[in-house]
Amino acid sequence: LMLEESLRQAVATEEFVLHYQPQIMMRDGTLRGFEALLRWQHHQAGLVSPGIFVPLLEETGLITRIGSWVIEKICHQRRLWGNTFPQDMVLSANLSARQFGQSELVDLVFQLLDEHQLFAHQLELEVTESSLMNDIEHSQRVLQALRKKGVRIAIDDFGTGYSSLAYLRQFEIDTLKIDRTFIANALVSPKDAAIVEALVALSHSLDVEVVAEGVETTEQLQWLQQIGCDCVQGFLFAKALPVLEAEQYPAKLD
Ligand code: G
Ligand code: G
Ligand code: MN
Ligand code: NA
């Protein structure tokens, strides 16, 4: 209850910050974009992990307010970074199931794009398989509306949810993010390696961009390059960085 109360306070006093984790194109080392990750800068406790407070935000329903704030914040940040990074650099936000289920989501996103004068393709929204499966017709409508405008949609943590491959055909998406547990095991477990290879091939045959999450070693990176993965993200490159560090991140790695 104490935690819940301080969460409500944190929402009111805006103790939340976004950190940005870079994503790198394998083709040429260019910066694809950044994933925004929420951090709670508690006035006494310091930085609190989202693993702790995101589930609580979900339970209390506060997630929809914070979630809207996150989208607004990355739109604002993308606008500010207009001259810092190339035009096609993408910022992505994680959407909770509740937030994805909100009827106001599409209008909010369109309004924010307009307000900040962004190109729709500069914004990507990450949703999980289970969020999509909650209400399939709603999901199809929302994805269709967002993608028609040009907003990118990524499926996050792919492979850990329902993992019915049939829904890749039902839902229009741009990006598939392979969950980091598969990447962590790929070089020691032939089964995980086979799954990653299959997901890369599947993505390409569906014309979907594929991102490997949680890349931590050069061996993993080299292997992902060999199997034709499009894009990588992980501690090998950088953890999620505060704004002032993120904007120093090179637009192209050597
Ligand atoms: O940022 P990690 O470093 O600890 O994130 C932990 C979990 O919190 C991940 O599953 C991530 O998707 C989730 N998360 C981080 N930021 C956000 C956010 O802005 N909104 C939602 N809904 N989840 C987030
Ligand atoms: O669920 P989602 O993929 O949005 O969660 C992102 C989470 O993964 C964040 O907690 C982020 O800090 C974490 N993360 C990002 N890169 C790595 C990595 O290379 N290794 C590990 N173990 N975690 C990572
Ligand atoms: Mn994510
Ligand atoms: Na993920």
Q: How do you describe this structure in short?
A:
It is found in: Cell inner membrane. The protein is of the alpha/beta class and 254 residues long. The chain has helices at residues 2-13, 50-60, 63-80, 97-101, 105-115, 129-134, 136-149, 167-170, 180-185, 190-205, 218-226, 243-246; strands at residues 16-25, 31-42, 46-48, 90-94, 123-128, 152-158, 175-178, 209-212, 231-233.
Tell me the structural class. alpha/beta
Strand arrangement, largest sheet? 1-2-4-5-6-7-8-9
Q: Helical proportion? A: 40-55%
> H/E order of the elements?
HEEEHHEHHEHHEHEHHEHEH
Which cofactors or ions or other ligands sit in this model? guanosine-5'-monophosphate, manganese (II) ion, sodium ion
Percent strand: 15-25%
The CATH topology is TIM Barrel
If you compute it from the alpha carbons, what radius of gyration comes out, rounded to the nearest whole angstrom? 18 Å
Shape: globular
| Cα-to-Cα separation, first versus last residue | 50 Å
